[in-house]
């Protein structure tokens, strides 16, 4: 029995509630998809590279309000030998994407715009019955998350959060180990986003120099410096939780027999971005006078109904090498990402680390074994290929989205909750149950079990 049959049979028999966000109307098997993309900036173009490399996707419509980015994306489609796509937004109309959604030949749309646009664009797309693959995050406010969820439930339009780190090879091997009980019963998980973004949040504004080229942002900046920096000035919280929490939530079976119950966040003082600007431009540059609300290191703790704790850290404004800092710890042992170490009691030398790669080679996830060659060369070490493959294949055969609406809103709502916690003096808050009780009956079936 394949995954879809299993889901349908289970749902029909009333034994599973996993298919509850899936509408059979979209289950028309198709061999090829016609996709649109809203936001053809650096991320959109990179995702499109993976999509254009497949034989089963045609990019038929693109929307961006920045003509340079739009033109580059059109050129990429043409270079791949596909017909020139319809374009929208070159006139600067921020709502031009709605005209794209009116096209009658779209099988789905990828949203890769600034965060504040994700919820309104996804809601409009779902209302127009255009399936959505949305870049992280799902929304800004807690209300956004409920609105995205309700729209999905009311329209039945497929929605997937394109959380690529869930597909990282070591993360999937660790999940495979956890599923096979190698770590024993899981007790504690860690993850985060620890990436020096100072040179992303400020640049020269030149379209060919998006990284580390200057100290401008907003209208004078380019790409993420145009919009992301403002969030550091105005907001304090874990603004980018899904790369860390996605894998942890999979490991802990969140929304499928488990759920987040309580959350708090602590934020350090903000020094990194100010010091960077003074260092680069001197104390008299106007941007050296900026005040940043966003603490340099934001630490979030989450409790789960089944007794696990999860720790997330956002650390993007200080000098540091990249690390998502995963830790998967159970009654029999643990994996720690940062030292590339696995220790399993009775198998590893006492009180010593094994090289994690030895374990990961043995427990390489079947999906990676199957697709490693195809994914090689795609963005972020291949995981971008996997997340798009999940979206495309599920849409083609009418499967439920591999990372579904409950995952999306649960992971992404950490942001407004952490802002609320910090604003309230690092208060511990109840975590909303977006499944409204369904988490108890939903079974642990994910993306990673799909077979594609
Ligand atoms: N999953 C990942 O690994 C990953 C990596 C990078 C970025 N991202 C996410 O992708 C998204 C885009 O990031 P980016 O780096 O490409 O930023 P970017 O600034 O390079 O691209 C965003 C594009 O959206 C366009 N845009 C803004 N408002 C618009 C509107 N109303 N209509 C149409 N287009 C509009 C901009 O002109 C810009 O070209 C963000 O949400 C970011 O967090 C995810």
Automatic annotation (TrEMBL):
Belongs to the Gfo/Idh/MocA family. Glycosyl hydrolase 109 subfamily. The lineage of its organism: Bacteria, Pseudomonadati, Pseudomonadota, Gammaproteobacteria, Lysobacterales. It comes from Novilysobacter erysipheiresistens. Its cofactor is NAD(+). It holds the Pfam family GFO_IDH_MocA. Residues 34-157 form the Gfo/Idh/MocA-like oxidoreductase N-terminal domain. Residues 172-355 form the Glycosyl hydrolase 109 C-terminal domain. This is Gfo/Idh/MocA family oxidoreductase. The keyword Cytoplasm does not apply. Keywords: Glycosidase, Hydrolase, NAD.
